[in-house]
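Q: Could you fold this chain for me?
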Amino acid sequence: MLKQIKEHLKESEKTYWDHLRHAFRQSNRMIVGAIKSYIHGIFPFVFKADGPLTIFKIYREIVKIRHIKELEKQTK
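A: Sure. Below is the predicted structure, expressed as structure tokens.
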């Protein structure tokens, strides 16, 4: 398992702490986006575009990551 961790950190070009910070930040953004989407479902006049905009912003950041670009090519 330690070998897999080291390989992933190497391919993502991040230290452990940078990777952890990045993962937590993205996770928190998705959680907040999900909560806003639930609220929007109940009260349609609130957070009208927050869910989709959060997804777009995260996507734009993630596709810039080199190893994600390579994974995307493999899935096509």
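A (continued): Residues 2-75 form one domain.
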